[in-house]
Amino acid sequence: MSDTNSAGTILIKEDTCLPANLSIESETFLPRWRVVKSVDRSALARNIEGVNWNFFYLAGEIRATVLGRNQPGTLRRAVKCVLAKQEGQKFNSLEITKVVSKRFLGIPFMRVTAHSRHIQQCIGLVPAKDSALRMPVAATPESGLGSGGKRVRPEVATKQYVALISSS
User: Which residue pairs, CB below 8 angstroms and at least 24 apart, start in 2-5?
Assistant: First the structure.
């Protein structure tokens, strides 16, 4: 587990849809999350892009600080906090970009910085379980006939995300 304590570590949600011909060796890190063991971040990105899928890197870092020494248990607690902050975004992977262990007044603490990542086949960024086709349709008075003779125009609810597509 000591190799997990380095920048560039990738975590993938267990129910993530991956290309059929892509093999990734991983082990359980937290419930519902697996840490990629077989390849580093850039090799994983090349493998995913090599089968014409996309591995998005989302702008905006997520940070968490927890008390404790530089141990795997402390790292797990810090990553749990990061995932709790990421929960509403519904992306299927996470890259740990920085792990810092320090002391303040003799009290050890660990700070973890991470970025959301997302693996999917299509080029447009659509978070898992949040595609426009599955979202409820909101009705506003304008076009089409609704109850009481009002005209109703359905609108698709969409979210905008800033993303960078990794090329290596």
Answer: 2/72, 3/37, 4/29, 4/35, 4/72, 4/75, 4/96, 5/70, 5/72, 5/75, 5/99
